[in-house]
Amino acid sequence: MNKLLQIENLHTYFYTKDKIIKAVEGISFHVNKGEALGVVGESGCGKSVTGMSIMQLLQTPPAKYVKGKIVFKGRDLLDVSSEEIRKLRGKDISIIFQEPMSALNPVFTVGFQLEEVLKVHTDIDKKERFKKVYQIMEKVGLPDPQKRFNEYPHQLSGGMRQRIMIAMALLMKPELVIADEPTTALDVTIQKQVLDLMKELQKEMQLSLIFISHDLGVVKEIAQRIIVMYSGEIVEESTIEDIFKNPLHPYTRGLIDSIPPIEYNKKKEPLKSIPGKVPDPSNKPVGCPFYPRCEKRMDICENKRPDFFEKEPNHFVKCFLYEK
Amino acid sequence: MSYKEILLRLLKNKMALSGGVIVLIIILLSLFAKYISPYSPVSINPLQILIGPSKEHLFGTDSIGRDVFTRMIYGARISLLVGFIAVGISTLIGTVLGAISGYYGGMIDSSIMRFVDIMLCFPSFFLILAVIAFLEPSIVNIMLVIGFTSWMGVARLVRAEFLRLRKLEFVMAMKSLGAGNMRIIFKHLLPNALAPVLVTATLGIAGAVLTESALSFLGLGVQPPTPSWGNILAEGKDNIEIAWWLSLYPGLAILITVLGYNLLGEGIRDAIDPRLKDE
């Protein structure tokens, strides 16, 4: 396997005055070259912190990368200098954020902001920069780039702004793109367009993609492999087909059950949900963090944490249900 | 809000407009002083001492026969130059320190802000007096001293703006694209904080003009024979009983200039405040 990114036993904590928030606790996963990996879970389960940890964008302190390794192309990113990390950002690894409304600077034209990325990373002259910016704008589906170049963010719709964000992220042709809920703030029709665009670009540019979302339905569209996070841990990892056919962890099952069905619901059954909420990350239960909400909890779950193991080929799970 | 909109709102505001016109007229008068007045600001004419305002001498002449109007429009150069450069210095220092303070926060912020507090403890006019007493009173020294003692307000203002700005999403976005801190602070965030700085700077010029006049009046500012409104006023006070024009006109000039800058500054503040809607 050709692993581009390998994360081993990563722990990211936030240290506040009176408590330690364990946002990410011992996660390990990898991303292959040209592969799209989906990361799903509820709000507050550590998805975004994982993405930000890879880019080291969290403010330290309060955040601290306590333990673990983030190996990108053979180098542990937690070991290299902040200047080297800075040069990596936007060039080798990019991130696309959720909020296209506020992720652009209101006082500059979008063209200027795209150009900035090239100014940061290259020495090419103005003509070359313009050419590259026009190219990428066309690639992300913004017609008439010469005109769009001089427009301010407030003149663009949400979908267009997100296209600009994608263009900025892809301008330097990075190998890894982290998309942190890129479609969540958009309305449904635009969501589909942006998703299709990302799918297309991922294939065309041979990108490795980490697609973070709380929406399994969206992840299904784009990812080949998926990891399910809960309370800062990975509870299940498998291929997309497998996870829908045969979800192992009760939490994954709950997530799949809470996708609204498309067919007309004859019995008018209410939409299923998982009762309760994600445990407070500064005060996690001793045993399995899902124990209080689990439908299939057993006595052993309360005080012991299950191991993460390969139940079936390429299908990992962290649950006592499947341990002998 | 775009700059075009702000300009339009500014032009609609009659107070701001009149302030702007006053400032513009004074700037033009001082720039073209050489062509406006046939006299030299320093040449003495013993035959025309203390003549009241007349056709030849609009604002009269002083105790050694110099034309007061000529001296005033040349003096306006000094007053405005001191105003602009002193405010330029204070705005530069205040903006850089405030931006760094607000952006980084933590220890850096605390240290800079404590330094600001210390600087604010000194009664600034007496600090300026004390410093000028040690240095030679010259135009350059006055500009520097006023500049170096009046940046604290700007620093606090810019810091407050940056505290707000640094939390915005586009800062994180720029960071994630590889931009360094200095690029983010000075290229991307500063233009967002410029409007309030502009207001403070405009009001600051009024303050600097006043300070310079006061210093020159006390004899610690611009040294005669170079004219400045402050020292024309100071020379006039010796003959105030027989030649009222020597004191009245420079005093009025200071008043009107300061008023003009204040009106303009407040007009800009209203124009950039989105909460104040056009009627």
Written account of the structure:
- The complex is a heterodimer of chains A (324) and B (279).
- Chain A has 324 residues and is α/β, with parallel strands linked by helices.
- Chain A folds into two domains: 3-92 and 176-322, Rossmann fold (3-Layer(aba) Sandwich); 102-173, no CATH class.
- In chain A, 32% of the residues lie in helices and 25% in strands.
- Chain A has helices spanning 47-55, 82-88, 110-121, 126-139, 145-149, 158-170, 188-204, 216-222, 240-245, 250-257, 299-303, and strands at residues 3-15, 20-32, 36-40, 63-72, 75-76, 93-96, 176-180, 208-213, 225-230, 233-239, 308-312, 315-318.
- In chain A, the strands form two sheets. An eight-stranded mixed β-sheet of chain A has the order 6-7-8-3-9-10-12-11, with helices on both faces.
- Chain A starts with a strand and ends in a 6-residue tail after the last strand.
- Chain B is an all-alpha fold.
- Chain B has a single domain (3-272), classed as MetI-like fold.
- Chain B is 72% helix and 0% strand.
- Chain B contains twelve helices and no strands.
- Chain B is elongated, with a radius of gyration of 22 Å.
- Chain B starts with a helix and ends in a 7-residue tail after the last helix.
- Chain A binds chain B through residues 55, 57, 86-91, 94-95, 97, 99, 102-108, 116-117, 120-121, 152, 165, 168-169, and chain B through 2, 168-170, 172-180, 183, 187-188, 191-192.
